[in-house]
Design brief:
About 45% of the residues lie in helices and about 20% in strands. A hairpin with a 5-residue loop joins strand 4 and strand 5. The N and C termini lie far apart (about 55 Å).
Length: about 200
């Protein structure tokens, strides 16, 4: 059996910083909790998980950018989430229920991740009660954000949504192709081009 990859010191610090935004980790427990996670690397355009597969792990992005998307019956892609550094990602419901996911997860850039298996995820809840609180805190914020974005797609213009995304996540526009941005906003690439021309007088 190959030796488990060692988590680098900078990765450890980054991960801890994000957890401590949600909760104070009891002294002496972080290293034990970290042992449940494993580093993984994926190349640009590589698929981490495809629709129809049962998720085997959940992810935390240390470096790089990923996209989560669905494909409809016509073969059209619809991006539902971009995960940059410090973002959590994965289909927890499918992983914990051991059923196929409907989402695709793909690296937009070379990515370094920390991943936790379904078995270790359950162990974390049992062995580290503080993690349950941290997870629920983060999940509630994420769910509220997703609900707001869904409402915005039905009530706000493409231009307003574009400007909001530009303000909230400016780095995306330097690392994500424009047609991905259009897909995420729920507009056509042509509409996005018109919006950009209007804003920047291209």
């Amino acid at each position: 059996m190959p030796a488990k990859k060692k988590i680098k010191e900078y990765q450890t610090a980054l991960f801890l910083e994000e957890i401590q935004k949600r909760i104070t980790v009891p002294e002496g427990q972080y290293e034990k909790f970290l042992a449940l996670w494993e580093p993984k690397e994926f190349k640009r355009n590589e698929f981490i998980l495809k629709a129809g597969e049962v998720p085997k792990f959940s992810m935390f992005v240390l470096k790089g950018c990923m996209r989560q998307y669905i494909v409809n019956e016509k073969g059209e892609e619809s991006i539902v989430y971009f995960a940059e550094e410090r973002h959590w990602l994965g289909d927890l419901a499918a992983m914990r229920s051991k059923v196929p996911t409907t989402f695709n997860y793909q690296a937009i850039e070379d990515c370094e991740l920390l991943v936790i298996s379904a078995e270790n995820w359950e162990r974390a809840f049992v062995e580290f009660p503080w993690w349950t609180v941290a997870h629920l805190t983060g999940f509630q914020k994420w769910a509220a954000k997703m609900q707001q974005e869904l409402a915005d797609k039905n009530t706000l213009t493409g231009e307003v949504r574009y400007l909001t995304l530009l303000k909230e996540r400016p780095t995306l526009f330097q690392r994500v192709p424009q047609h991905y941005i259009a897909s995420y906003l729920g507009i056509s690439p042509e509409t996005l081009s018109r919006i950009r021309k209007k804003i920047y007088n291209i």
